[in-house]
């Protein structure tokens, strides 16, 4: 049994100027508390929330007697989290400052500072009393409410000063039991497509990450060439244009849609999902011998870990087990003869050096993932004594295990 945590982001209806001014004042006092706590905690090397609260609670209550007392608690939690992150980065030499800078502030709320009034209204405790805020509910929120998820006691709010709205972050929790798998689904992640092996049949999901990355690469390059010459490198107009680009949103949408498909198929067949065990930063290892700047950029933006992370998170939500195996030589060894596969001129189809049968690079990787998972796990996986792989020398023979079924992005990512 494992606990899954998800966050739903909701927006309020537009607030009146009088009500919104109260939240602006609340944010200002909360920011001041966090800034004071962060400076004090870094100077004295304090990372414990309880210790920070013990040392500074009385002082905060004296400085801000008009605020509900639990804002001192949540400010200490917020500050200790920031300090832990800052000190960890400082230890690695990744910071240039002596103290962290508090730029963006979300107001942390515990169960004494907020409550739901019905399903569409939230009440928030402020220095002016309890204030009711009406929420704009979206479909994902109703899925959590009706899907057996429990609302956690903590929440966060952020101010949208352009539209006079609140952005509310609600946390949902759910206990999920992981089933014992009856087999495996192997998933191999590449730059422009994802290979999935289901019941001995390989499917190639076209993602188009390459086109997305290159499209935004050239767009940013044109903007930089134009505005850097006219207004300099630190041009505000250029930053505004970059902020409106949606590369991250598009790639995230593709990742989660693909993860949803893989996990749902795995759950229907009671399968486990097999993934490659990549390092912390696989892109950095891949570009060691790459000199082309554009190719290096593509590799860094290819979302290898991002796709795996999305599949893992979606699998946790549905109770689907995920297995990681060693990726070494996955696409280089024949799964039938354990011999080297020879590829020529960058072709994705190679030949087994022992028997000469053709193999698609991604299909090979999936079958090797399946084999390693079966050897390393005691579940009801397909017997290794009877291979479903056609080892004949006829190219793309009738069992079609060598030739993956291509699924264009327009079909699955609607």
Folded structure, characterized:
- With 414 residues, the chain is α+β, with helices and mostly antiparallel strands.
- It has a 7-stranded antiparallel sheet. Strands 12-11-8-9-10-16 form a 6-stranded mixed sheet, with helices on both faces.
- It has 12 helices and 16 strands.
- The chain has 2 domains: 175 residues, no CATH class; 189 residues, Nucleotidyltransferase, domain 5 (2-Layer Sandwich).
- Strand 8 and strand 9 form a beta hairpin.
- About 6% of the residues have low confidence.
Name the strands of the widest sheet in spatial order: 2-6-7-1-5-4-3
Which percent range describes the beta-strand content?
A: 15-25%
What does the average pLDDT come to?
Answer: 87
* SSE string: EHHHEEEEHEEEEEHHHEHHHEEEEHEH
Distance between the termini: 34 Å
Radius of gyration: 26 Å
Shape: globular
Question: Under CATH, the topology of the largest domain is which?
Answer: Nucleotidyltransferase, domain 5
Fraction of residues in helix: 40-55%
How many domains make up the 3D coordinates?
A: 2
Number of strands: 16
Look at the helices and sheets and give the structural class.
alpha+beta
Characterize the largest beta sheet: strand count, sense, and whether it forms a barrel.
Answer: 7 strands, antiparallel
CATH architecture of the largest domain: 2-Layer Sandwich
Assigned CATH class of the largest domain:
Alpha Beta
Determine the number of helices (DSSP H or I, runs of at least 4 residues).
12
Poorly predicted segments = 377-387, 390-401
